[in-house]
Amino acid sequence: MVEAVQGAGVVVTGAGGGIGAALARRFAAEGARVVVNDLDGAKAAAVADEIGGIAVPGDASAIVSDARDALGGIVDVYCANAGVAFGGADPGQALDEKSWSLSWDVNVMAHVRAAHELLPGWLERGSGRFVSTVSAAGLLTMIGAAPYAVTKHGALAFAEYLSLTYRHRGLKVHAICPQGVRTDMLDATGSAGDLVLKPTAIAPEDVADALFKGMEEDRFLILPHAEVAGYYQARAAEPDRWLAGMNHLQQKWEASQ
Fold this sequence. Notes:
GO terms for molecular function: oxidoreductase activity. Belongs to the short-chain dehydrogenases/reductases (SDR) family. This is Dehydrogenase. By secondary structure, the protein is an alpha/beta fold. The protein has one domain (3-256): 3-Layer(aba) Sandwich (Rossmann fold). It is 53% helix and 11% strand. It has helices at 18-29, 41-51, 64-70, 97-125, 136-139, 146-166, 184-187, 190-196, 204-216, 228-237, 239-256, and strands at 9-12, 33-36, 54-55, 77-80, 128-133, 171-176, 221-222.
């Protein structure tokens, strides 16, 4: 059990289902007061009712003030979980400006905006916890999903920046980087997801378990799929070999279409 969670004010964005709902349920089970956010108000309300939380529906980029008010003025833990995933196998020829713009806004800028609102209070108190749901795509990449892979790298970079800049002032930051998770988002990845992610996909609850273990151990990088650590090391040690391997996977995917 993470003792600091008991009685804490927690916000989880994108919590109407999938990983977000699993995080909201786990925080509530550990004694936290949870704000459930989702763009779909009905889904947010359903999860909030289930866990005894507070539904604050709306755009994840603009709910910090309302969430803070709902928690009595203090947010102790902010889970930047809302995300979108778009494909784009050949961004040079199939550029979809709307997909890129929305990906940047939700996957990166929503985190930046939340931190901008939360940091003054956290730094004044000397405590706060920012949890970023990134993806293994942020450490590695993902075939057939240029906007997703690129913006998840951005989300990881921002989480790293927060940690290295403010950890000595009491801010704890965690970046969750799973591979496939059995959610609607995984189902939407199509044949690329079927090839790369579904064979080792885990349940959303496994992601929540990994986060709580990581919080207990005060770790920045949370890897629900342990094998991702090896892939990440291989990528750094021999980037050309790693890229060749990913290109082989790309070719295998193209051949299956």
